[in-house]
Amino acid sequence: MKIVHCSRLATVAMTTAVLSCAAAFAADVPQIIPAPRKMALGEGEFVCKGYAAAQAKFESDAAIPKEGYRLSVAKDGIKVVSSDDAGRFYALETLKQLAVKDGKDGAKVPCVEIEDSPRYSWRGFHLDECRHFFGKETVKSILDLMARYKLNRFHWHLTEDQGWRVDVPGYPDLVKYGAVRSASPRHGEKAYTGTKEDAAKLNGVKYGPYYYTEADLREIVAYAAERHIQVVPEIELPGHVYAALAAYPQFACRPENLAAREPRLVWGIEKDVLCLGNDEAIKFMENVVDWVCKVFPGDVVHIGGDECPQVRWQSCPKCQERIKKEGLGDHHGLQPWITRHFVKFLADRGKRTLGWDEYLLGDIPKSAMGMSWRESRSGAGHELVSGAAAATRGHDVVMTPCSYCYLDYGQGLKEDPFFYIGGKVTLERCYSFDPCAGVPDNAKAHILGGQGNNWTEYTWNEYDLEWKAWPRMLALSEVFWLGEAKPGFADFKKRAAAQRSWLVRHGVNCAPLE
Predict the structure, then answer these.
(1) Which of 69, 118, 313, 488 would bridge with 319, disulfide CB 3.0–4.6 Å?
(2) How far apart are the C-alpha atoms of 268 and 303, rounded to whole Å?
(3) Residues 301, 351 contacting (CB under 8 angstroms)
(4) What's the predicted TM-score (pTM) here?
(5) By three-state DSSP, how is residue 34 classified?
(6) Cα–Cα distance between 499 and 17 in angstroms, integer?
(7) In terms of Cα–Cα distance, which of 385, 345, 242 is closest to 337?
(8) Which domains are seen in the chain, by residue range?
């Protein structure tokens, strides 16, 4: 028989065989990522003019899992069967990886039977645009690549101590003061404390104003939806709000600390946080979150909740009064109180609340979703709430532990011109990730999946970002699609080499595999 495979044009003789994810893929098998759950190669190829996807016929089958599909390619045509639009979309993305241009105006696709569906419903890519800003075109290119590799959640980190990136109606000072810095740490410098020594590491170069308008946000949301990607906005509270407080100092416990009216210039954690005893400060956040609910139609809003020092609350008369009025005991009760408040606030608007693991401290409604990033007690010193613990308590959890999923950590490459925050997360380490590791069997249903996190203190532009994200996001995409059924790193690496070649040919600054 003759088989044309996607990495090169060739003819090989082989018997038709069903290839499951437990079996290694031969070198001449189509180099698809994530690997299909089941694939049987047939004889010959389908030859088409124009795009192969345009030649497909579609059928529905309610028995196919959500986002799943059956793809059949025969000499006389292509058929896609799915139970939903997402499954149809992913079948066509697989077809794109299978198709090989014939050098004219058409393509050739190997005859194949594929049955495929995802292990996890949350397959995410996170981007921090507060430390450094990338803009609409870069975001759209990210969404294009997410779609190719069947990632379906774009977690957009839009507010931070170092920058506020959304123009909220009624609050013009958010972008006037919060979207611009007078300086940033110089390239390659690590500055966290704001001391005289760290101040000497600043570059003195104005950064911004950089932000998105409502029209920009709606454009991105629509672009993502066309690719079956849900945008999950993150609006931080009650900590990591220094850029917002620069715009509205009256919402801080100590407004005098915000006299400079600018975001935090160095990286790290800021002690000035939202004053939880100030009704106007809470109303401000409600108005912002309410507007976010209207702009982002997805069912999840991320409210941060991580790394919130509580030192200001201890000496703030308004916060102390809130503690007494609500019977919270002491300052430790304030963050669970504000979390409960916004869980209800968002639920009233048809949304679920998501936050980093610390925000699950205290008596938090089970409808609140957790995002597990820490593997030990760290950050601002809050008690650790592990993903396993949160799932056991009945919370749905997205797993994104820093030692597997933080793409601002070094890649362990032989040669690497880019700068990292520290750590080491190799391609193989990403691939070895098991979101359900250590989770009791009766709680595994609460593990929704995971995501790769792109924090940008040391990521200055799209080329830097692409180098750090790819090819490691290839590994994570397969982890999230196949879970325990992934075929193994050696097999993945062969396919990743072919996909890296495709990425480089299409202008993506993809790092080498090792």
Answers:
(1) 313
(2) 18
(3) yes
(4) 0.94
(5) coil
(6) 23
(7) 345
(8) 18-116 (3.30.379.10), 122-505 (3.20.20.80)
